[in-house]
């Protein structure tokens, strides 16, 4: 399957680099086939990237693309607020990178060329449970590309959240997915935990990406 995920409207990783140590622990949720994963591995060769991708076809491609990169480890889970088997709404059409644990809502109107024709069951895990299970004591950088489920994941990561220096996350200005948090709510919640907005990239009417950094 050919990847169809746009990089337009992103915050450059060269900019993010200034807020992290030279050997960061990075969690990337929604790694897709590893395009950003590989770039981060090159930018931080002394770091470790833990890449999560729950859709089997994409996970297989991710593993193939990063198999010879020593500082990338892959997990076939979806980060969530629970540990269980959950329904994933799988995107197709012009984007295979819009799948979500939440059912599509305004996304169908804003992006009519993206379809959600299939659902699958995927295994979910919380960031805190994963960290305890695999002996991860801290995460420096959290990359969230999980289509409306961002705040739910963060709320279930109270232990690891204390260690995070920067969060790069997709944000939503409309109800793209049923039950997903909008940007003002996400921003307010992160600010209450000591994060500030460092950089916004909001090129679309329905949202974009934002870099949050822990205030010193």
Account of the 3D structure:
The protein has 216 residues and is of the alpha/beta class. The chain has one domain: Rossmann fold (3-Layer(aba) Sandwich). It has 8 helices and 10 strands. The chain has helices at 13-16, 35-43, 56-66, 107-110, 127-134, 150-155, 158-161, 183-192, and strands spanning 25-29, 48-52, 72-75, 78-79, 84-93, 114-125, 141-144, 166-172, 195-204, 207-214. A hairpin with a 2-residue loop joins strand 9 and strand 10 (207-214). It is globular, with a radius of gyration of 16 Å. The chain starts with 12 loop residues before the first helix and ends with a strand. The relative contact order is 0.17.
The helix-strand sequence is HEHEHEEEHEHEHHEHEE
Q: Give the overall pLDDT as a whole number.
A: 94
The fold-level CATH name is Rossmann fold
In the predicted model, the low-confidence regions spanning at least 5 consecutive residues are 1-8
What does the overall shape look like? globular
Number of domains: 1
Q: How many helical elements? A: 8
End-to-end separation in angstroms reads 43 Å
Strand and helix layout:
Blueprint: H1 13-16, E1 25-29, H2 35-43, E2 48-52, H3 56-66, E3 72-75, E4 78-79, E5 84-93, H4 107-110, E6 114-125, H5 127-134, E7 141-144, H6 150-155, H7 158-161, E8 166-172, H8 183-192, E9 195-204, E10 207-214
Parallel strand pairs: 1-2, 1-7, 2-3, 4-6, 7-8
Antiparallel strand pairs: 5-6, 8-10, 9-10
């Amino acid at each position: 399957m050919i990847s169809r995920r746009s990089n337009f409207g992103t915050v450059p990783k060269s900019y993010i680099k200034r807020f992290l140590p030279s050997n960061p622990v990075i969690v990337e949720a929604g790694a897709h086939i590893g395009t950003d994963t590989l770039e981060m591995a090159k930018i931080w060769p002394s770091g470790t990237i833990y890449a999560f991708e729950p859709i089997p076809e994409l996970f297989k491609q991710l593993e193939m693309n990063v198999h010879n990169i020593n500082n990338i480890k892959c997990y076939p889970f979806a980060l969530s607020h629970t540990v269980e088997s959950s329904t994933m709404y799988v995107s197709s059409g012009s984007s295979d990178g819009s799948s979500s644990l939440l059912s599509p809502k305004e996304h169908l109107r804003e992006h009519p060329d993206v379809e959600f024709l299939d659902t699958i069951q995927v295994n979910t895990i919380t960031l805190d449970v994963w960290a305890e299970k695999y002996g991860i004591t801290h995460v420096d950088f959290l990359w969230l590309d999980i289509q409306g489920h961002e705040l739910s994941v963060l709320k279930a990561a109270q232990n690891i959240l204390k260690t995070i220096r920067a969060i790069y996350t997709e944000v939503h200005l409309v109800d793209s997915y049923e039950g997903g948090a909008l940007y003002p709510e996400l921003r307010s919640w992160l600010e209450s935990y000591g994060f500030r907005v460092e950089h916004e990239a909001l090129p679309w009417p329905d949202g974009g990406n934002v870099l949050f950094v822990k205030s010193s």
